[in-house]
Amino acid sequence: MQTVLFHSTIFGPVHSRRLGTSLGINLMPNDGKICSFDCLYCEAGYNAQGPGSTGLPPRAQVARLLETKLAAMKDAGEPLDVITFSGNGEPTLHPDFGGVIDDTIALRDKYFPDVKISVLSNATRLGRPAVAEALAKVDNNILKLDSAIDATVRQIDRPAAGYDLNRVIEQIAGFGKGAIVQTMLCRGEHDGKPVDNTTEAEVSALIDAYRRINPSEVMIYTLDRPTPEVNLRRVPRPELDAIAARITAETGLKVQVSG
Fold this sequence. Notes:
The chain is an alpha/beta fold. It is built from seven helices and eleven strands.
């Protein structure tokens, strides 16, 4: 079974297709996965692998490890474009997420003041004021919306109980231009049923949602690494470009494509 990718709290820097040279922060266990989604395409594998044994890294430990890495990079003259919260699950599930964001902003300002801070989130915790306030502080508040059709979200993202798609769209819209919406496009099969969030109905529903949200940018991308559902396929780049062009034509929004 495919398992977690990230075996440390601070990882990289790595090259991100969307963000550039990125230093990663994993607020989840180093040997397990904790997430409020269980996506068919997740590079860190399914939630069934369990949460592991290392637990969530304490706030002070995250700050200490981050400062050590940033200081070393600065001393070595290494380039850095962005500090990105990603990893083995949903970063906003960390109980001190807001405090970690404050520490990261302070350390960024000390060592790399021109670097952006990005959070990749599935948007399931936006109803918590502390989470929303923390996300409003970062440079790139990147929120997932893989479909604007409930059945498709439940098939591809497999959210935890209580997920309400319309409520999440409204919560993302609450950030206005302070949000970037990220959509993974894929095709294939799961449990004998077709998977495809690139159909006419899917793209039309996404465009309606993007229009409601009115983010600063939309990011669409497709598969780049092995997925736990082996029967998923990439969407060809020309099709991604055509979808992006349609989104821009119908909404006026900037669209970044990776694929």
